[in-house]
Amino acid sequence: MSDPEEPDKPETPDEPQHSDAPQEDGPGHEAPRWMRFLERGTTVMLLGGLGSLVLSFLTLGVLPLGELSDEVKKDTPSSYRPMNQLEQTGFTVYKREGCAYCHSNFVRSTTSDVRRFGAPAEAWEYQDQYPQQWGTRRVGPDLSRESGMRTDAWQYAHLYDPRSTVPQSVMPPYPWLFQKKADGELVPTQEARGLVAYLNFLGRAMRESGPQTKTGSDAVNGVMSHEGH
Ligand code: HEC
Q1: Residue ranges of region Disordered (predicted)?
Q2: Closest residue to atom 37 of ligand 1, CA basis
Q3: Tens of pLDDT along 33-50?
Q4: Residue nearest to atom 16 of ligand 1 (CA)
């Protein structure tokens, strides 16, 4: 059974799709409205602008993200393990207290940085730390290689009163991370224990595995051979 005829809809492909479209650019043939709209200067500029925006979003935003996650997957050494609960707590406190205002958390691959702090930062080290606390100032030293640098007792004493361990320090004290018991004894809170655990997480995987990228090992070897002479 065939449907009743619909004269408005062309059914065969060889029928002209747009009966009002010009067959050729002869005189007396007006271009259709959509074509005139497309050819307008403002439309061209708008579409060109939007096109460039989408293209740059894809090439500068989406593509590098994919490449970065591939790189992180490829470079992560087997000694790396994600932050545990306590270290996560510490990371939250680190962000909340604004430690990044004075401390960077990123070793650059320059000789001075590598000599002072160790292997340069690599992408895989930051996979659990979001937003990354790279920081922009170094009022205090970089902390991305802090693990194993000090004892926990030193860290607690320093957090409670920095000038008790470093007399000339300008770092502010963080007494609210400690509880004073009735007998006057100071006990680090869960937040302080987390913070020290987080400081001991920083750079641990790098210390155990060494740089995983060529840039990283080149920077370290460059500094070491420099120092050998
Ligand atoms: C006003 C700036 C400032 C802020 C904010 C600050 N620090 Fe510091 N920090 C310093 C300075 C300066 C030093 C170097 C002197 C010293 O050791 O106290 C330092 C040293 C340190 C050290 C010792 C590094 C080492 O091994 O020599 C650690 C660890 C540290 N800070 C952690 C923190 C943490 C965690 C926070 C946030 C809770 C923080 N700092 C906030 C300025 C700051």
Answers
A1: 1-31, 208-229
A2: 99
A3: 999 988 899 999 999 999
A4: 169
d(CA 125, CA 106): 10
- Does 170 contact ligand 1 (Cβ within 6 A)? yes
* H helix or E strand, kind and range, residue 157: helix 152-160
Note the pLDDT tens digit of each residue in 123-177: 999 999 999 999 999 999 999 999 999 999 999 999 999 999 999 999 999 999 9
Distance, in Å, from the CA atom of 48 to the CA atom of 137, rounded to the nearest integer, reads 40
Whose CA is closest to atom 1 on ligand 1?
171
Task: Indicate whether residue 204 lines ligand 1 (CB < 6 A).
Answer: no
Q: Hey, which bits of the chain come out as E strands?
A: 178-180, 186-188
Which two tokens mark 12?
A: 């065969």
Query: Ligand 1 center to residue 177 CA distance, Å?
Result: 15
**Residue by residue, what is the 3-state secondary structure of 70-91?**
HHHHHHCCCCCCCCCHHHHHHH
Backbone angles phi, psi at 219, to 5 degrees: -65, -45
State pTM to two decimals. 0.81
Residue pair 88/193 in contact (Cβ under 8 Å)? The answer is no
Q: How many Å lie between the centroid of ligand 1 and the Cα of residue 17?
A: 74
Q: Within 10 A of 155 (CB to CB), how many other CB atoms are there?
A: 21
